[in-house]
Amino acid sequence: MTNPGPVIRRLELGLELRRMREAAGVEPKEIADLLRWDVSKVSKLENGARTISAAELDRIAERCGVDGDRTERIHQLAKEARKRGSYGRVQDWARSYVGMESVAGELLIHYGDMIPGILQTKAYAETLLKQAISVRPEDVGRIADSRVARRARLTSPNPPELSVVLGEPAIRGVVGNGEVMREQLDVLLDVAKLKHVTLQVLPLSDWAHLALGSPFTILNLAEPEKTILYLEGLTNADYLAGPQHLKSYTVAFNRLRVAALSESASAELIRDALGKLE
């Protein structure tokens, strides 16, 4: 579906820059001050969520006392990282996520009140996108198509392990109309039958668990070996890879899985919701 090259190169570049900075005893704030960035931008760079210009790279290398072959390597990584993957017309801040998703070996996804992009039908996606603040009307169809295309990886020869915990409102809430929801719920039931997919629903009776906050995704990547936490907002996204964040959200996800209905009971709830649609 996609060319993962730029994604892998961004991750490799980020890891290399972090090692380089730490070996030189340089703090992230020093890099931020050097480039007149917010410190969060340094974090995104080192987590593979953004690229960097050649001039900015030279300044970091100079500050960290790096030259020669190592400088050539990071420049080559940066050049390849700046290439654009074929992800359709998506927002810049979401582009990195789509790329990482395309190469992840495992995805752990929690959404409370809607279906995640990788599982959306075109009609469901279009209905949501038409209401989105950050999406231009002329881009709705193309972004919706890209979401449907992402789902194809689940039936590819080398699919990711996928574990999803959805809140019951994501199942019973009507997006668009009954026809849109019937198609969407049918897709969920089909995907749930795949051996590498675990789909559970957190019922309203355990709704307190959804006080954990916004939807989140944990992506486990194999090459380079790395785990990324993705938090999406209305107009931007955060990519976190710190041990404390990852531990907290992994614990949260495991608690959600325990509280959620079993796979078979979740499928029965989805079928019940289907039967009640007009």
How would you characterize the overall build of this protein?
The protein has 278 residues and is α/β, with parallel strands linked by helices. The chain is built from 12 helices and 6 strands. The protein has a 6-stranded mixed beta sheet, sandwiched between helices. A hairpin with a 4-residue loop joins strand 5 and strand 6 (237-240). The mean pLDDT is 87.
CATH A-level architecture of the largest domain: 2-Layer Sandwich
Largest sheet: 6 strands, mixed
* Number of extended strands: 6
Distance between the termini: 35 Å
Count of DSSP-assigned helices = 12
Strand ordering within the main sheet: 3-2-1-4-5-6
Summarize the amount of helix as a percent range. Answer: 40-55%
List the helices and strands and how they pair.
Layout: H1 5-23, H2 28-35, H3 39-46, H4 54-63, H5 69-81, H6 92-103, E1 104-111, H7 122-129, H8 140-151, E2 161-167, H9 168-172, H10 178-192, E3 197-202, E4 216-221, E5 226-232, E6 237-240, H11 243-259, H12 263-275
Keywords:
278 residues, 434 Repressor (Amino-terminal Domain), Endonuclease, Chain A, DUF5753, Transcriptional regulator with XRE-family HTH domain, Cro/C1-type_HTH, Lambda_DNA-bd_dom_sf, DNA binding
